[in-house]
Write a structure and sequence with these properties.
alpha+beta, 153 residues, Gyrase A, domain 2
């Protein structure tokens, strides 16, 4: 008879149906994951970027920050840096018992002597692809200074 082994084949048929169902679910998920991965890789590395340029750029920005004047009683507290594909930033932090009126003239003279342009009415100076921004904050009996040295591609 045609269906005489049906009860014996039923567990095998159920298992086959389960495999088909799971395959139908997993195949589209796999395609979606591969597609998302390929889309993410499409823009890596960014166009017109040479691997290794960031290290040289970050080194130049470090040298810039290190070359800035350090007026008397201008105490280094910390630094941080961030190198990316399109820009590198180094931040030096200082504090001083001297206020900005006493400290800033040393910077103004240095920037002027080294060909930097001041952006009108700010503490921001530019030269080529490099920018230096000086942030001044009141820390009680000390004045806090942050010097941002930035170079953009």
């Amino acid at each position: 008879m045609l269906f005489e082994n049906y009860e014996q084949e039923e567990p095998e048929n159920e298992r086959l149906a389960l495999f088909i169902f799971l395959g139908a679910l997993l195949v589209p998920v796999g395609f979606i994951l591969v597609f998302q991965f390929l889309l993410g890789m499409r823009n890596y590395p960014p166009p017109n970027h040479t691997i290794g340029t960031d290290d040289a750029q970050l080194r130049r920005v470090r040298e810039l920050c290190a070359s800035l004047p350090r007026p008397e009683k201008f105490e280094f507290t910390s630094s941080s840096e961030n190198g990316g594909f399109d820009s590198s930033t180094v931040i030096y932090r200082y504090n001083s018992p001297r206020g900005a009126a006493e400290i800033m003239p040393a910077f103004l003279v240095w920037f002027d002597e080294n060909g930097w342009s001041r952006i009108t009415n700010t503490s921001t100076y530019e030269k080529g692809k490099q920018t230096v921004y000086i942030s001044i904050g009141d820390g009680g009996s000390f004045t806090d200074y942050e010097i941002f040295c930035i170079e953009k591609d």
